[in-house]
């Protein structure tokens, strides 16, 4: 009888928990850097963009959508702890953003085990949709493959064929050097060397001095945010550009260009998934964002909006919050919003969308404070991102019969 009572009690608890889960609000967690090197153009600005996506969507399946957010401090153990609490205690259904690929890998592994949705925006390692891919993870912005492909090709076409890399000493920086080196060498260029500096380094002098004897004509900055700004400023001070060397800066935001100044940054090339001044739709959404934040958005908030808007649309279309059903629906329906037209989520989780090769304007070309880029060209997703069968994604291998 005790066994029977236990089974009955267990069944009752299961039913109660299932009913609670069904009635609970849909909950989205924004996890990113809110206090350090990646807080610029992301952080709480991305939280606000996600809030806009939730407001624009309204109730989903008759339930309200709630937002939580946290600072992962760029530490994988902190990110994993936050994710576990969100999943087990707070009932979070999806985590969005997660800049810093090392943190993203920790969150991705836990989300896979818990069958939760990961909407990665700031996590840029191409391994997210390669060897580490899973059914619950999607990658929304650029990645190391597309940055290397678009930027590397553009710089090579302009004569930049002798590269020295200064990279961030963690997963993202090393993946970006790896992927760009492959593009350079495949097109007849030379990689002269690479050094790696810790995240949030203030003094790059010892690293930049290692580049000087190699006489590069391109200094590849496989870092991002404030690290890129400081790298450029200090490289100029050291005279690394006096012989005509240029920079390949992969992740640089509007505020960073302001910090460097148009005079110093003019001509710099960037590959971005979004620019606020692309068209009437991007300008209209950016005006709404600026009214809340005080300046136009960069790509991280815009892509986080896209990710959450599409996720909630998929929940509605699937008629359930069940992660397997929602993940399948996300891959089935097109991605459409102010920033993305007829985008597609591939089997490996890569969001296929246009990228834009941008160039920093000359001071005389800029008509206002945030009028920073010229659009050099639009790069279709099929040209920018890694082919589906080349990433080593287990889902793709299984679907194609590869072992």
Question: Would you kindly provide a brief summary of this structure?
Answer:
This protein has 403 residues and is of the alpha/beta class. It has 15 helices and 14 strands. The chain folds into two domains: 2-142 and 279-350, Response regulator (Rossmann fold, 3-Layer(aba) Sandwich); 145-272 and 355-384, Response regulator (Rossmann fold), CATH 3.40.50.2300.
Structure, explained:
It comes from Bradyrhizobium zhanjiangense. Keywords: Amino-acid transport, Signal, Transport. This is ABC transporter substrate-binding protein. One of its GO terms (biological process) is amino acid transport. This protein is an alpha/beta fold and 403 residues long. The protein has 2 domains: 213 residues, Response regulator (Rossmann fold, 3-Layer(aba) Sandwich), CATH 3.40.50.2300; 158 residues, Rossmann fold. It is built from 15 helices and 14 strands. The chain has a 5-stranded parallel beta sheet, sandwiched between helices. A 4-stranded parallel beta sheet has the order 7-6-8-9, sandwiched between helices. A 3-stranded antiparallel beta sheet has the order 10-13-14. Helix 5 packs across helix 6 and helix 12 crosses helix 13. It starts with a helix and ends with a helix.
């Amino acid at each position: 009888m005790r066994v029977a009572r236990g089974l009955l009690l267990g069944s009752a608890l299961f039913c109660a928990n299932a009913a609670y889960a069904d009635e609970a609000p849909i909950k989205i967690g924004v996890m990113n850097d809110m206090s350090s090197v990646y807080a610029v153009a992301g952080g709480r600005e991305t939280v606000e963009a996600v809030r806009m996506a939730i407001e624009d969507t309204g109730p989903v399946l008759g339930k309200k959508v709630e937002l939580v957010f946290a600072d992962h401090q760029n530490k994988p153990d902190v990110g994993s702890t936050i994710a576990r609490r969100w999943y087990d205690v707070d009932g979070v259904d999806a985590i969005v953003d997660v800049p810093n690929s090392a943190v993203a890998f920790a969150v991705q592994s836990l989300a896979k085990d818990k069958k939760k949705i990961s909407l990665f925006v700031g996590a840029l390692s191409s391994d997210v949709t390669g060897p580490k891919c899973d059914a619950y993870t999607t990658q929304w912005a650029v990645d190391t493959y597309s940055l290397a492909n678009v930027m590397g090709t553009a710089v090579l076409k302009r004569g930049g064929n002798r590269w020295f890399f200064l990279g961030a000493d963690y997963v993202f920086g090393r993946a970006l050097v790896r992927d760009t080196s492959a593009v350079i060498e495949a097109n007849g260029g030379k990689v002269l060397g690479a050094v790696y500096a810790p995240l949030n380094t203030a003094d790059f002098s010892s690293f930049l001095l290692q580049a000087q004897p190699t006489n590069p004509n391109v200094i590849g900055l496989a870092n991002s945010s404030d690290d890129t700004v400081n790298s450029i400023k200090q490289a100029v001070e050291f005279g690394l550009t006096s012989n005509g060397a240029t920079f390949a800066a992969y992740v640089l935001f509007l505020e960073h260009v302001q910090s460097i100044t148009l005079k110093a940054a003019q001509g710099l090339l960037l590959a971005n998934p979004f620019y606020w001044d692309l068209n009437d739709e991007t300008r209209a959404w950016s005006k709404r964002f600026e009214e809340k934040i005080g300046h136009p958005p960069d790509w991280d908030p815009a892509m986080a909006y896209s990710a959450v808007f599409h996720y909630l649309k998929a929940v509605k279309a699937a008629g359930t919050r069940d992660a397997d059903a929602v993940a399948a629906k996300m891959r089935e329906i097109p991605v459409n919003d102010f920033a993305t037209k007829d985008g597609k989520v591939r089997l490996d989780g890569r969001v296929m969308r246009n990228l834009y090769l941008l160039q920093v304007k000359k001071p005389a070309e800029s008509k206002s404070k945030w009028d920073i880029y010229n659009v050099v060209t639009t790069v279709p997703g099929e040209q920018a991102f890694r082919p589906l069968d080349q990433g080593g994604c287990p889902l793709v291998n299984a679907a194609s019969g590869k072992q």
